[in-house]
Amino acid sequence: MFLAGTLDAQEQRGESSSDLFSQAEFYFHAGKLTEAKQIYQDFWGRVIQDPRMDRVMYRLGQIDQRYHSPVTALRFYRLLLEKFPDTLLANEVMLNMAQCFLKLGNFKEAESLLNQLVRMSPDKNLRVEAMFYLAQVDEKRFDYDDAIGKLKNSYIQSENKKVRDHAARLIRTIVDKKLSKEMTISLIRKYKTGFPADLLLLNLISRYRLERDIVNYRSALNEFLNLFPSHRERPQIEKYLAQTKEDNNRRSRLGVILPLTGKRALTGQRVLQGIQLAINKAGRSVKEKLDLVVKDSAASRTIVEVIEEFASDPLVIGVLGPVLSDEVKEVVPVVEKYKLPILTPTASSPGLQELRYFIFRNALTREMQGRFIARYAVNKLNLKRFAVLYPMQEFGRELKESFVNEIKSLGGDVVAEVFYDRSQTDFKQEILDIGGITDDDLKKMINDQVMNNVDSGKFGPNGVLSKPHIEMGLLTEDKIENLKVSLELSYGAIFLPGFYDKVGLIIPQLAFYNIEKVILLGGSGWNSPELIDIAGKFLKQGYFVDGFFSESNHPQVRQFVKKFTSTFGEEPTILSAQSYDSAQIFIQMVLSGINNRLSARDRLQSLKNFPGASGSTTILPSGDSEKELFALKIKRKKIVEEN
């Protein structure tokens, strides 16, 4: 409406077609393409003859092309050339038409137009740009040799920095992602020195590192130094070469990066104990094939520098660690650059598995716990309706969301979701919000119900969460004698995804507000004898999940616990169990003959049902793990295994 009003006003003022064209051009160059298109179209409709009409049609084609509408853009360009065969814009139109055909996958038409421009255009920059797009045609046809040749010419000849940058970027993409090793070697011989021989040789160096071809790796490093004495990568290449000369040992290396000093040293020590136990258990057979290289992530160097040291060593087939999710995210660029698989036994943040192709983890996550206990409750305990009372912290929200989503996917109902603050010790209001009732209110409701015939309201789905239930009582004229009442709930279980200290305080308060005949469910935060001490007699029916249970009867767990306690004189934690299993995964790889990181990555991606101390583990396509967790129960004031 604004534009229409503007054009009407222009007519009333008698503004010329030149003013209209100028306004359209202003909008076009300001990036306001929708407004520009409307004015160009109006100009075209009302002006019969104008020397700028070819440019108007050209602009309309450009606008549709920028809006990713190559078909309609081609209509404008063809019409322009038909009506104005002698236009000075002909070469630019042909170049744009070629781009549209390229977008549509019509490589034959694109190639024909581009070849005409390369042969006939008097404009050098336009010829170079046409050559750049011809290279894209070659690349789409998998003719990488010709594509790189044309791109190199575009890079050398173009005076347009944008074209030069695009050419260099496309060459790098082809070299890094499209070429076989044989083609890379052939092109190195063809170009010998200069650009893009340096990119090709750097790519070949990376290939030899990945394949652990040490002889050819050293040869390629020396060749690079000889051919490119002033190259910016020379210091790094010299470092790589020195690294290969330090040790002629041909054993594979497994990098380990942990916090061994500082405030997280205890975590690092527990992880290291699990790894060391796995190495010791494997004995001489693995020690002859694998060296363990341990680095402290809390030392003076950054974790990126440590990972890069591992990654640049062709003998390193993988890394265990880092332990923190933020550290894993930090090293992703290095891991991707060197194609180094890392398996973290502890990092548990959500979304970590979405990072890249070389990130794997074997750790208990909150999402995993929520899904498992939900399935257990529905499929094993035959429960259908639930309330959730969770801490308003990141871990509490994640566990709650995972549990609720899984319950709903299984056809169950979550009738209440109530949160509490981590600092709380009194949970009265939260318990009342999930259907709890004080003794006085309960008796009053019973009296109203029996003596005054007052209905407590609809019970069940979309109704009240609880109602009084008379278990025993003798009704006289004006009172009820020997009354015994309880609270009937519209749900069968409460999910309490907190830690044992708060859960231990909540459980007696549930009983105080008459929520007693209900099953309680929890996560790994329950796994402490202190929960039983704090909750006492009020903890009657409790089930929870964890990724490790030291008293399990599973053979892998019993064997692990026995060896761990005899070696270190203490019971293992889940950190030690997960790191033990992670090390075992790499050990089995090495014993099966795997000796380079690409094969190690492929084996990790295909890992299924690995029997470990922290449960059976399968690596998903995302790099995350799916584990058969431990279902645990409170029974006679003890934690016992259910599955």
Task: Describe this structure as you would to a colleague.
Helix 24 (about 530-535) links the parallel strand 11 (about 520) and strand 12. This protein starts with a helix and ends with a strand. It is built from 27 helices and 16 strands. The model is unreliable at about 1-15 (pLDDT under 50). By secondary structure, the protein is an alpha/beta fold. Helix 4 runs antiparallel to helix 5 and helix 17 (about 305-310) runs parallel beside helix 18 (about 325-340).
SSE map:
Blueprint: H1 2-13, H2 17-29, H3 33-46, H4 53-66, H5 70-83, H6 90-104, H7 107-120, H8 124-140, H9 144-157, H10 161-177, H11 181-191, H12 197-211, H13 214-227, H14 234-246, E1 252-258, H15 265-282, H16 284-287, E2 290-296, H17 303-311, E3 316-320, H18 325-338, E4 342-344, E5 359-361, H19 366-379, E6 385-391, H20 394-409, E7 413-420, H21 428-433, H22 439-451, E8 466-475, E9 480-489, E10 493-495, H23 500-512, E11 519-522, H24 529-535, E12 542-546, H25 555-568, H26 574-591, H27 597-605, E13 617-619, E14 625-627, E15 630-635, E16 638-641
Parallel strand pairs: 1-2, 1-3, 3-4, 4-5, 6-7, 6-10, 10-11, 11-12
Antiparallel strand pairs: 8-9, 12-15, 13-14, 15-16
Secondary structure class reads alpha/beta
Query: Biggest β-sheet: count, sense, barrel?
Result: 7 strands, mixed
What form results from the Cα inertia axes?
flat
- The termini sit apart by 69 Å
How many helices? The count is: 27
Radius of gyration (CA) equals 36 Å
Q: In which order are the strands of the major sheet placed? A: 7-6-10-11-12-15-16
**pLDDT < 50 stretches:** 1-14
Indicate the mean pLDDT: 90
Helical amount:
40-55%
Please count the beta strands (DSSP E, at least 2 residues each).
16
